[in-house]
Design brief:
The chain is mainly α and 159 residues long. The chain contains seven helices and no strands. The longest helix is centred in the N-terminal third of the chain and has 20 residues, at 3-22.
């Protein structure tokens, strides 16, 4: 997987997980466990600014997504506040923080969304810009994205 694909995958995954928690259709009754996530790299939570820092860059990220003509329609039925809370919870948990993320299954949530690689890449750009704007070091961005990337195969539904 190329570096660009890794970044793209990670971004779409994060947003999709938040959408899954905020749309009624996504509240699946499937109780099968998600595959175990890779352990968070030591110090990532702190490098992202802990909960306060994560909340700030996620807020910026969601604002950018809602303004991005390429992808905003995917979020039209999702409340921005709920999306921000869900994404911040996910990023906090993945980075080794004290949060617990209980999102829906990515494959089920995205099955009918017709997400293309270009949509995914646009989301990645927005996330990168949000993290850049908050002064998060490129190396730390990559550490977070590497934790998100394995879910990409369940997100992009149009090949």
């Amino acid at each position: 997987m190329t570096f660009h694909r890794l970044i793209a995958a990670a971004l779409w995954i994060a947003c999709s997980a938040a959408i899954a928690q905020t749309t009624p259709a996504s509240r699946a009754t499937d109780t099968s466990p998600e595959p175990a996530a890779a352990p968070a790299p030591a110090g990532l939570y702190q490098a992202l600014g802990e909960k306060e820092g994560i909340d700030r860059f996620v807020s910026d990220f969601v604002d950018r997504m809602y303004q991005d003509a390429r992808i905003r329609d995917f979020f039209k039925d999702t409340k921005a506040v709920s999306l921000k809370e869900s994404l911040a919870e996910q990023f906090c948990a993945l980075s080794g923080g004290p949060c617990t993320y209980e999102g829906a299954d990515m494959r089920d949530v995205h099955a009918d969304m017709k997400i293309r690689k270009g949509d995914f890449n646009a989301l990645v750009e927005d996330l990168q810009h949000a993290m850049d704007a908050r002064g998060i070091a490129f190396s730390q961005q990559n550490r977070l994205l590497a934790l998100l990337a394995p879910m990409h195969r369940d997100i992009i539904t149009v090949r």
